[in-house]
Each structure stands twice: as structure tokens, then as C-alpha cells.
Amino acid sequence: MRPSHPSLVATAVVLTALLSIGDASARPPAIQLFCESYSNARLCAASRVDCSLCHTRTESPVAWNAYGDDVRSAFSRSSTSDETFAAALPGALAAVEHRDSDKDGVSNSDEITAGTLPGDAASAPASETTCGPAELSTTYDVCRYDGRYALRKVTLEACGRSPTPAELAAMADTPIELQPDAVADALTTCMQSEFWRGRDGVVWNIAHAKIRPTIFVAEPEENTDGHYTSEEDFDYFPDYALFVYTQIDGHDSRDLLNARYYVQRLIVDGRSVYKPVDELPSRQKMPTERRAGMLTTRWFLLFNNMFTALPRTAAAQAYRAYLGLDIALGEGLKPVPGEPADYDYKGVAAPTCAGCHSTLDPLSYPFSRYDGVTVTNLDEKGRYLPTRLEDSYEASLPGVSAMPEAGVLLGRPVSSLTEWAELAASSQEFASSRVSDYWQVFFHAEPSGAELATFDTLVQAFRTEHAYAIEPMLRDLVRTEAFGAP
């Protein structure tokens, strides 16, 4: 599931609505301006993007909260152009940072630094707790890491069961300083279970938001040899197999986007086994050199590219699913000069659209030669077709074939979809999205406040120490005080 906890970054986007009554169009430069103003803001550093810092979603149309009202009141009514807005925003933010907009006893600037919401009285930095020496009791130790509490969380979330009395007793007998490692070992055992890695297991369920399955399209059948296969034209089960494979057994999770192989799921002695293969018996026919993991499966191209000349939906879904950036919420906007060019005559160069499409359209160009369902030949569907625009769209959209295949991702040029995928998979945003998916498995919430420092540490170690492998990152996670202290 995409992380969606509130961010100071997105607020900068929606702050543009202050500029004139009834004008809620976003000015993407506000994102950069806000983060430049508050470079020490934890939510901003963690790339968390949401509009709720300044707005409330409980009313329609969306209304300002207390902090948003204060910032809006600090704006000059003459700040109507991009230039005057850019000049006025830092001053408006600074003018209200020492107020306590939501009346929770903490200043706006302190909440911004801590990663809580200055417009929401229910969101405030945690108060200090005075703790004495550790004591073993029948209840959990709320002042420090408690191995029994952490073990219960691990077995419930990763094994699908409660810990046994013997397991809890063994943990209680473990020296306090060794309990985090004992919990991590229990996690490693759970990660071998079908509850974790099997069909409809924990990892499989994480994939739902990325794959977006439709049960009426494909349903596998178990053959007598224990294989799950499907001959449906647009089968999404190879997507699940590839997703799970990249998340287990120390594999490099960047292969979500970089894999040049497919994965077959086998059932061996009642257990799921995932095997990388060069080809599959179904209609997965993408040439090896054009494969980009989850972005070039037959199902992804059918569901997202379909029959559109410029597959904006595919690019937006990839951006959201694997980088945690939702353009519809104003996230990850990095405008490209001269864009959008509007090759397909959709009117996206209009002022109300250009703010997002100056990022989205160049993000989408590398997807434009991958076919979804345009061609009539079944063996050509879901393939890379270099003349796709000329053959299928030029007659109805004159000039569309001039659309480049090269694009821009995260402000950097890319020449192809495989290069798009490689850049995405090596990014901070990809690592943050991976850690966030599993954080939500164990916390059932997104990191906030003081937890963001722990989250950032996990992300950096995931990239620099663990080679993007999930298991060592999760072993780090369950050893943290954020996880193990009740």
C-alpha cells in the first residue's frame, strides 16, 4: 500500500490556493520552496506528501485547518503570479512558525521539526516519560524494548499466530540486551512460512496495490504436477510470482523494476517455491532486452497502457506503486521546461493541467512504445513495438509519432523504459517505498513524529548495507525501540 501519512511537502503545493479566492491550482515550485524553508523537517526529509497539513478532508469542498488559515492570512493579496508567490511563501511560513495554530501547547515550528501536524491538535510530539530500572512483570515494560511484546507482534504479523507460552517464557529468560536479536531470529523463521511467502500471504498481499488484480480476468488452476499456470491472454499471476521472489531469500528487491527474467511459482510438498525462468508458457513475450520487471509484464501493459498513445496511467501507477509518489496528490512534481507538449491533443497544456503534466508527460514517454491492446495479433499484444505510434495513432492524431521515447524521471533524463526502471530502482524514493510497505505491515500505520528518525535510518541501511534485500532490513526494524517498546 502506498504510504500516505501527512507531509509538509504537499502543503506547499496546496498553499497556492491562498493566492486568490477560488483559485486552487497548484504551483509545483512550492514543494521545493517549502523544503528549502524547513530543511530540518522530518516529514519533508522523509518525502511524505499529503495535503492534510493545511487542509481538513472532513468537509467538502476541502477546507483549511487552523495552520492553513494562519499561513493564508500571512500572504499578501498581491501574490498572484508564480514569481510573487515564490517570493512571498517563505515569509508567510516564517510569520506563523512561532504560533501554536492548533492550540496543543507546541509551536508550529517545533511540530514541523518533530514531524507532527501544526494544524491538528491530536497530532503533537510525544511527551517525555520518566522510567526506572527494568523490572520483569506480567505486564509489558513501557519504558524500553520488551522482547515478549516484540515477539508477539512478530509472530502475529509474520507467522499468523500468537506466541506459545514456552516461546514467551524463553524470551523472558533471555537477557534484555539479547532480546532484540532473539526477536529478529523469530522473524527470520516466520519469513519461511506460507503465511509470509505463499499465495495470499503477507508479501502477496503487499503486491495487490501494485498489480491491481481483477478476478474475472485470470484464475489459476493447480495441475497434477503441482504447478500453478494459466493460459489466459492477460494473466497477472506471473506478476505476483515475480513480486514475491524479489522480496524473499535475500534477493535484490530492485529486480521489481530491473528483472530481465520471469518467475514461476511451484508447489512443492505443499509449499510455495519461486523459480526464475527466461520464458513462461503463457503469452509473456517481451524481448529480454526490453523487460523492466513489473513494468513490462503482459498484465501491467494491458491494464495500464491499454490503447492509449501516451500511457500516462502506466507512468503514474509505476510512480505511485514503486516510488510512493502520487501525482494526483501533487507528489513528486518536478516540472520539465517546455512540457507538456500535448502530442495527443488532450488539452494538458491548459494552465489548470500543466502543473502536473509538465512532470507526468515526460515521465510517460518511455512507456509509449509498449503496447497494451492496440494491435489485433494476440502474439503482438503486450510487446515492445518501436513503430506503435506510426502504425496505430498517426492517422487519427497527426504528429503524434514525433513523441520522443526518451523522458525525464526525478529530474534526470532517461532514454528508454529500461533506463527509467534502473534509475527508479536506485533512488531514495524506491528504498523509502519498500521500507514503508513493510513498516505498515507491522505497525498498521505510517511513521510519524519521532518514528521518522528510525524510518530514515532503516531506509539508508537498506540502500547502503543490505543491498536492497528485505530480510536484513526487517531484522533491523524489529530490533528498534520503535518496534519493541510498548
Automatic annotation (TrEMBL):
Annotated spans, Disordered: 98-132
Name under which the protein is recorded: Cytochrome c domain-containing protein
Organism of this sequence: Sorangium cellulosum
Signal peptide: 1-26
Keywords: Signal
Source superkingdom: Bacteria
